[in-house]
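Q: How do we represent a protein-ligand complex in a form that can be generated token by token?
A: Start from the inputs.
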Amino acid sequence: MRAFAVIAHKFRGDINLNDLPGSGRVDVIARCINSAIFLSHDIRRDVLFYMFAPRVNFLLNIDSSRVKYLNPDERSTAALIRNAYINLGRREESSPGFFPKTASFDEFIAELDSRGTVYYLHEHGRDVRDTNFDDDAVFVLSDSVNLSDEEESRIRSVAEDTLSVGPRSILASHAITIVHNELDRRGL
Ligand SMILES: C[S@@+](CC[C@H](N)C(=O)[O-])C[C@H]1O[C@@H](n2cnc3c(N)ncnc32)[C@H](O)[C@@H]1O
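Then emit the structure tokens for the protein with S-adenosylmethionine bound:
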């Protein structure tokens, strides 16, 4: 199992499918889901994806082994996120593989910690190529904005290490693709 967790700082809960960037940058999250779950003409069935939105204490867990109706385009992915948010507190599984719940930042971190060895992804971390991974690795990223100092220190408190996939600050979705590639090449 591989897990990716993205902190969606700008997400407020409202999603206009005709304006994804204006909907709390849900386009960024949809691209991260795409990178985490999709292969060419297939789906990775061993991925957990977490989206945590601190403004609304919203935690969405996507279990790729269960997903149906997920397509590679951002709009339909955003529609499933919207459906998950609408069903918060009503349905445990809003659509196959989508599990929305209310959570604080600390509850989010505790959930990640319970899933495996946590790594914080940052361009100034240790080179991912010098790291040996357990079977259950959990990678935490920020979205289009940096983590606050407080968020960063809370993540570092549970993280085994801070890892870099390269010297440049790249898009979160691209960092996810590189991590997958790194683990795929090792046969993990
Ligand atoms: C777009 S970046 C963060 C925001 C960016 N630093 C800014 O000033 O707007 C999104 C996330 O991707 C991850 N990331 C970006 N470049 C990385 C790298 N070279 N190595 C590891 N993670 C990286 C980090 O988790 C980062 O928070």
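Residues 121-123, 141-142, 144-146, 164-166, 168-172, 175 surround S-adenosylmethionine (CB under 6 Å). Strands lie at 2-7, 38-39, 42-43, 47-53, 58-63, 98-102, 117-127, 137-142, 159-164.
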